[in-house]
Write a structure and sequence with these properties.
globular, single chain, signal, two-stranded antiparallel ribbon
């Protein structure tokens, strides 16, 4: 009996180790608001060129937990269901997704990206996309939240 008990204990330990490692993968599905906010606010502080348009400096954005939740949820959804679009397969828009988590702002914009490693890189990518750049530089928006899942990045901007 002793060897069976030892085997059972070892198998149980491996099961817990495996579960722990599975939980570690959740690190890839994260709130990246602070690091993305820093990078976007650098652009907003100095102004930049979006396509052919010179965008003046605008006030810094602040973090919003509901927009963060919306961004994380949407990044997870796109990653899990393998799609990449501002409108979900069910037809929900960024403002509808934000309202679903009780965000009451009148305006919600969204920037999405994939295959970037860092917040600095993804913000440069958004800056190089005229529409995304203009969204980040819009003085309409005063707050934001950002999330990442796998290689999908989402930032929701709101007011």
């Amino acid at each position: 009996m002793f060897p069976k008990r030892v085997i059972y204990i070892l198998l149980t330990s491996l099961l817990f180790i495996s579960c722990s490692n599975d939980d570690d993968t959740l690190i890839d599905e994260t709130d990246v608001t602070d690091s993305v906010l820093i990078e976007i606010n650098k652009l907003r502080a100095t102004g930049c060129k979006c396509g052919a348009d010179d965008m003046p400096a605008v006030p810094a954005l602040v973090s919003n937990t509901l927009l963060t939740k919306t961004a994380i949820n949407y990044a997870k959804d796109m990653n899990a269901r393998n799609y990449f679009a501002h409108i979900s397969p069910e037809g929900t828009s960024p403002i509808q997704r934000a309202a679903a988590v009780s965000y009451t702002g009148k305006y919600v914009g969204e920037v999405i990206a994939r295959n970037y490693s860092t917040s600095a890189e993804v913000v440069i990518g958004w800056k190089n996309s005229e529409d995304h750049c203009k969204a980040m530089m819009s003085n309409t928006y005063v707050e934001m939240g950002a999330g990442k899942s796998g290689n999908i990045w989402v930032a929701n901007l709101g007011k």
